[in-house]
Amino acid sequence: MESIISYVFIGLVLVVSLITYRYKRIKIRQYVLSEQLYPTLVFSLYIEKHLGKIAANILHIKALDDITIETIYLELITKKREFHYYDLTERQLVIDVPMRIKSNHSFKYRIDYKQLTELLEKGELPFRTFRFVVTDQIGRKYKTHELGLNKKWQLFRPDSGNYN
């Protein structure tokens, strides 16, 4: 009788752990990859993971003063530190630009990761690293940290060595 109870208990523990594992795996998670503090805004880049894979990049802009976001583009950086640009609004990766953000409010732009990697993979411009750049109504540029892609097309920050 005692052995049957112990087997039932072990079975229940296994079932509960499997249900917990599946629930946590299905859950969509967001991780901070880059956060830059500027006098007029806080510019953050999050990655959204679903089922263990990157599903989207989220540009989160929190305005400390009233600001209008005019353009969002991707800055490609070669080994020789030459810069090339892809305008994300022209390529339909980002909509709702220009966007006016009031003081102490925020706005999120979601960029599908598959579309971004297709743009980088099929693009004619060479690059080693890249970063997201936002310009305001005055022409000031706000940039994320430099990002890179490894051989498996996973996003990481080369200066930190942390892979996501």
Q: What does this 3D model show about the protein?
A:
The protein is built from two helices and twelve strands; from the N terminus they run H-E-E-E-E-E-E-E-H-E-E-E-E-E. It is α+β, with helices and mostly antiparallel strands and 164 residues long. The chain has a single domain, classed as Immunoglobulin-like. Strands 4, 5, 6, 8 and 9 form a five-stranded antiparallel sheet that branches. The protein is elongated and about 80 Å long. It starts with a helix and ends with a strand.
In short:
Helix content is 21%, strand content 45%.
Helical residue percent band = 10-25%
Please state the CA-atom Rg, rounded to the nearest Å: 21 Å
What's the architecture, going by CATH? Sandwich
CATH topology: Immunoglobulin-like
**Domain tally:** 1
Contiguous low-pLDDT stretches (5 residues minimum) are none
Could you give a short account of the major beta sheet? 5 strands, antiparallel
Per CATH, the class reads Mainly Beta
- The total beta strand count reads 12
Shape category: elongated
Total helices: the number is 2
Order of helices and strands: HEEEEEEEHEEEEE
Identify the quaternary structure here. single chain
